[in-house]
Amino acid sequence: MIQNRRPVPERNGRKPVTYMKILVVEDETGLREALIRTLTGEGYLADGAADGDEGYSMICTGLYDLVLLDIMLPVYDGLEVLRRIRKQGIDVPVIMLTARSTVEDKVGGMDLGADDYLTKPFAMPELLARIRMVSRRGTGTVTDSRLKAGDLILDTQTYTLSCSGSDRSVRLGAKEYQLMEYLLRNPGQVLSREQITQRVWGYDSDAEYNNVDVYISFLRKKMKFVQAETKISPVRGVGYELEAAGT
Question: Does domain 141-243 have CATH number 1.10.10.10?
């Protein structure tokens, strides 16, 4: 498995850092690594899996915002992985990658719940455009560079948190931003401390679970400052849930 590549934030009018997390399930090592390098260079977080079994297990963690899934994979092929995750009720956006180009193959993937289909070989700009298009269907609403849930608004270019009901705003630090973005992309969902730790600090991090509680406290103070009614609620023994105001 290829672990997280964490981009360095750029805030001087250049490419925004989204901290959207993408899983690349591809058995061709060269292509998998090339995709991860490209995604990282575009400001995404990216992990890799080399076969269907590993990819399925990683998707089931709930840590990913989008999956690039090859069809021709060892152990389980991509269609079987897709069938299994949809049966589990996992609705993460999936873009199928394959050398197959027949209408039957495409329809088969779409019928199983694929969101898009890209035939190899493909140009990286086209893949990035497909990712942007598919990712817009997330539970948090993205408008231009802003991510919204309830009355909270997060500007993904400036790291600024604001509230639709007030004229206040506050700049978030890098970890605060990653955590808030994760919450905003998953409103109404219970996120465990383990999920948050792996998402924000990475699989190979030495971060303690109490780091999550510390940064939740930081975010709550900033949400109070901007006068947001949306709340981060604790779920005892599990983690936290973003309760969006008005939902």
Answer: yes
